Amino acid sequence: MKSNHEIVSDLKDILSLVNDGKEGYKSSADTTQSAELKALFLQFEGERIVYAAELKEHITKHGEEAENEDGGILGGVHRTWLTIKQALSSNKDSAILEAIVTGERAAIAKYDEYIADYVDHADHMTLLTGQRDGIKEALATIEKLQLQYKD
């Protein structure tokens, strides 16, 4: 069984991922010329802000603080959101959407990893599964839009 510190580390890992997603959606909203995509990206950014607050609350319940506001600095699967920055330089909505798909798939995989560890994460399983399901819904929406915004 994991120690409290290891559990908090897992939650901070997810928090970093969520903050990366928040920043990715904000950057995407700032870059796209499509009013439809801009509104959707801002909606998903707002969801990630809520997810971050929920995670911080759970981290506090475990006796630690969550100072992360901006995502991770280096490494980890959540760095896939950096591909958004490359996509943004092309200014093509199709490239932005593809980068978001990559980031969201990585996020779901990370959530699934921690959800599979039910014993250590039982006290926040509802939170993790709810957030993962929200990300899955966002991914499904983005994947549908990919067809509409193909080059």
SSE order and pairing:
Layout (H helix, E strand, L loop, with lengths): L3 H28 L3 H27 L20 H9 L2 H23 L2 H4 L3 H24 L3
Could you characterize what this model shows?
- It is a single chain.
- With 151 residues, the protein is mainly alpha-helical.
- The protein has one domain (4-148): Ferritin, core subunit, four-helix bundle (Ferritin).
- It contains six helices and no strands.
- The chain has helices spanning 4-31, 35-61, 82-90, 93-115, 118-121, 125-148.
- Residues 73-79 have low confidence and may be disordered.
Q: In sequence order, what are the helices and strands, one letter per element?
A: HHHHHH
Task: Report the CATH superfamily.
Answer: Ferritin, core subunit, four-helix bundle
Sheet having the most strands = none
User: Given the helix and strand composition, which structural class is it?
Assistant: mainly alpha
Q: Please give the count of helices.
A: 6
**What proportion of the residues is helical, as a percent range?**
over 70%
Number of domains: 1
CATH architecture: Up-down Bundle
In short:
By secondary structure, this protein is an all-alpha fold.
Keywords summarizing the entry:
single chain; 151 residues; mainly alpha; Ferritin; 76% helix
